[in-house]
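To close the section, here is one more complete example, presented without commentary so you can practise reading it yourself. The ligand is adenosine-5'-triphosphate.
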Amino acid sequence: MRVLAAYNIKGGTGKTATAVNLAYLSAYYGARTLVWDLDPQGAATFYFRMPERRGGGKRHIRGKQDLDSLIRGTDFEMLDLLRASFAYRNLDQTLAETRKPLERFAKLIRPLTKDYDYLIFDCPPGINLVSESIFFASEALLVPTIPTTLSVRCLDLLTEHLERNGPQSLRVLPFFSMVDLRKSLHKTICNAAPGKGVRFLKTRIPYASVVEQMGVRRAPVSVFAARSAVDYAYRALWDEIQIELDAPAATRAGQDLQRQTQAPGS
Ligand SMILES: Nc1ncnc2c1ncn2[C@@H]1O[C@H](COP(=O)(O)OP(=O)(O)OP(=O)(O)O)[C@@H](O)[C@H]1O
Ligand SMILES: [Mg+2]
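Output:
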């Protein structure tokens, strides 16, 4: 099972759109896929037309309730969901009360390994114990980044943090999201290839109202706007992510923080 997390320290960058649209495509192409909505806002849960769970934010995190019993099928074949709970607003504290919180999520998802090809976490914004635990459970972070100064700064904060404290095996795969090339700032930042120690994926997700329509249609874009520019962009992104994950370390984009942050000439 490959474990990916749609993650950004910054809010509102397209994490949930990424998790929902890529998970749909993963399942569409035949992979058994699970989305775990970790955000008390429950946006991914909403997009999949499910109610949030009531309470129950603690028992399964503490390992006292099987995750299996919480997983539901979505309207789409091969695609399951572990719904958000508003109780996840206290997830950080719940995790702090467990033994070895950093290893908690890795341990929790271990029994799912045989059941799924992909697990995609939809993470809330911010950086706390929950994020740290997700870093240790994941193979890669998918980091949608709006081409603005503050978004790129958040990515730099993340990569600097991971360089010092992150698990070595974690890949960081940033890509530009909500790109509007009519804006000169977007154009400048996209062309500048920013980011300390990471390289952006080539695929960019354009700014498009069909993504906002997901809230009305309550479905992934590929379901109601097939062959739109955003549908093609998410398909290209999913292809690129899989190529990146399969690539040998030496040819990888995204992470290789150690290698890329060596002093020039070293
Ligand atoms: N490519 C896009 N084009 C236009 N609007 C977009 C795009 N991607 C996301 N949006 C819109 O931007 C808003 C934020 O997107 P989304 O919820 O995916 O971000 P998020 O990072 O998950 O936010 P949060 O940090 O609150 O969880 C939503 O209203 C969504 O519809
Ligand atoms: Mg979200």
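Once you have examined the tokens, check your reading against these statements. The chain has one domain: 2-260. The beta strands are 2-6, 33-37, 71-73, 79-82, 118-122, 140-145, 171-176.
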